[in-house]
Amino acid sequence: MIRVAVIGVGAIGTHHARILSEMEGVRLVGVVDINPERAYAAASRYGSRPYLNHLEVIDSVDAVSIAVPTTSHFSIAMDFIRHGKDLFIEKPITSTLNEAETLVSEAEARGLVLQVGHIERFNAGVELVSRLTKDPQFIESHRLSPFSGRGADVDVTLDLMIHDIDIILSLVDSGIIDIRATGANVLTDSIDVAHAWIEFEDGCVAEVSTSRIAEDVSRRLNIFQHNTLLSLDYQTQEVTCRRKRDGVISVDVIRPERKEPLREQLVSFIRCVRERQRPVVSGQEAKKALGVALRISELINHENRDG
Questions:
Q1: What predicted TM-score, i.e. pTM, was given to this entire model?
Q2: Domain 120-259+292-306 - what CATH class?
Q3: Residues spanned by CATH 3.40.50.720 within the chain?
Q4: In the predicted model, what is the mean pLDDT of the chain?
Q5: Rounded to the nearest 5°, which phi and psi values hold at 271?
Q6: Which residues are paired to 88 by β-bridges?
Q7: Fewer CB within 10 Å: N-end or C-end of the chain?
Q8: Where in the chain is the domain with CATH 3.30.360.10?
Q9: Are 95 and 73 in contact (CB under 8 A)?
């Protein structure tokens, strides 16, 4: 029986608690939140114990799921790493690259599982697109959402765009040679809308657009490769494949069996803990995506200051 706790039971962490409480071979021994109402409500709902401080559960768990604001990821994660606990951390892994490098090196030195919540990797459509992608030439992604206020403690590059950065880096097996970006602060003190252009050594180019102040939700990924266009709707998990063969273009809509990505992600994490496997998105992949996202933010902020 793997003993786990969820640190932070807000909008996302509540779902972590729900899924982990239902999982076979797992015991949710505690939920932690600095807000007593949230802690007690989640504990009551999912048959666990409430705590107001994460240090109170360190000796009672084998692994934890950390779903607190990004600015608190590093300090809380380090407390559990020092006590030899496996970790799942919501994305982005940390606020800074130095923090990410420290977390990754400390976890690796202790042989701990460190998985980061890049949830789209567990989207059935993404899994299908990953199998169909071969030598992509151009990739474009659009991730647009209405303003909710959630995640506003960081730039939209770390809140939303980082999902697409991680997917693109997983599809393109090549180094980055250039990044260009533009964006703006609109409703918050952080970047709310961003557009980036990423060039890779193998010639592939990725164009990434993200906004958290859009009118409607839209999450799409298009992959252009020789004689093929793959189009993914993240929300429906459907993939449209357009292929040119013998001068004729065929269109196939592939509807994989829909899954709950968060459940698949946490199941994968528990499997890694149990079998001591490397996660699909380890700290190394998360650190790489964070580095690109931070570079995009840096370019946008520099442009806006000079402008």
A1: 0.93
A2: alpha beta
A3: 2-118+262-278
A4: 95
A5: -60, -40
A6: 65, 115
A7: C
A8: 120-259+292-306
A9: yes
For the chain, give the secondary structure using H, E and C.
CEEEEEECCCCCHHHHHHHHHHCCCEEEEEEECCCHHHHHHHHHHCCCCEECCHHHHHHHCCEEEECCCHHHHHHHHHHHHHCCCEEEEECCCCCCHHHHHHHHHHHHHCCCCEEEECHHHHCHHHHHHHHHCCCCCEEEEEEECCCCCCCCCCCHHHHHHHHHHHHHHHHCCCCEEEEEEEEECCCCCCCCEEEEEEEECCCCEEEEEEECCCCCCEEEEEEEECCEEEEEECCCCEEEEEEEECCEEEEEEECCCCCCHHHHHHHHHHHHHHHCCCCCCEHHHHHHHHHHHHHHHHHHHHHHHHC
pLDDT of residue 152: 67
Amino acid at 256: P
Tokens, residue 6: 């969820």
Parts of the chain with a pLDDT under 70: 150-152, 306-307
Q: Show Cβ contacts of residue 39 under 8 Å, excluding neighbours closer than 6 positions.
A: 9, 31, 32, 33, 50, 51, 52
Confidence at residue 246, expressed as pLDDT on a 0 to 100 scale: 86
Per-residue confidence (pLDDT) for residue 295, from 0 to 100: 97
